[in-house]
Every structure is written in structure tokens, then in C-alpha cells.
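Figure 6 in text form: structure in, sequence out.
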């Protein structure tokens, strides 16, 4: 039986997205999203922020690079993947990230924009032919 690996987060972009290309010239975009939680315990208001690293591929990556910047409210639908890599110092790293399948740009883009303020725009990994995520 196959399992289900799906996550949805809504939060603010932590830093401007970086658009890069793989060895095979496949575009990908990395950015982080901060999700703030608030609750009350013993009459005292508390708050915590969880940071989620996100990566988008192909046409979705290019849309994210064009539309997202630090502070913008965004909704990300995707799946959690473990990423392993060796750092510049040779140290092996293993971390988790969200591989975005759909990104909804919420609110107005902070820069000048073609979209009307207050409108949202959604982008999906399937917006372009070959929407499969290359791994």
C-alpha cells in the first residue's frame, strides 16, 4: 500500500527566492516560508515561528522567482522530501524540504506588478509540459 505525503503551509516568504539551474539545465527555485503560530497558555499569549525550506522546479520555479520576495504571503502545497548533500567542507548533510507542487501568491506583490493589488495568483508544477519533478 502506498502512503500519502502531502503538506500545505501558509506563511511569509523569508528571503528572496534564488533561481538556479541543474546540470541538465532544469530550473529550480529555493526559498523559505515562516509559519507563525499563536496560542494562549495560562492566560499568557505565546508565539512560535516554524521555518520551512521550499524548492520548486521547472515553470513553477520561474513563476516563484518572478512573483515572490521577502515578506510576501504565500500558500504552498507539496510533499516533504529528505535531501542529502556534501557541504563545501566535505561534511555530509541531511535535511528535509518541501517540494512544491502548487504555490498560491497571496496579497499584492510588493514590487510593481501586472496583477491588481489584493488579487492572488496560483502556479502549479503542471503549468508547463513535463511538470514532473526531476530527482
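Output sequence:
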Amino acid at each position: 500500500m502506498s502512503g500519502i505525503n502531502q503538506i500545505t503551509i501558509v506563511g511569509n516568504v523569508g528571503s528572496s527566492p534564488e533561481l538556479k539551474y541543474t546540470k541538465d539545465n532544469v530550473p529550480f527555485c529555493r526559498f523559505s516560508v515562516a509559519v507563525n503560530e499563536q496560542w494562549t497558555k495560562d492566560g499568557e499569549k505565546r508565539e512560535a515561528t516554524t521555518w520551512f525550506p521550499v524548492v520548486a522546479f521547472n515553470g513553477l520555479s520561474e513563476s516563484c522567482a518572478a512573483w515572490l520576495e521577502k515578506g510576501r504571503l504565500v500558500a504552498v502545497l507539496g510533499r516533504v522530501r529528505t535531501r542529502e548533500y556534501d557541504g563545501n567542507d566535505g561534511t555530509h548533510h541531511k535535511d528535509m524540504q518541501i517540494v512544491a507542487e502548487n504555490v498560491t501568491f497571496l496579497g499584492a506583490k510588493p514590487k510593481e506588478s501586472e496583477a491588481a493589488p489584493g488579487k492572488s495568483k496560483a502556479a502549479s508544477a503542471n503549468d508547463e509540459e513535463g511538470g514532473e519533478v526531476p530527482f
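Caption detail: Residues 7 and 74 are 14 Å apart (CA to CA).
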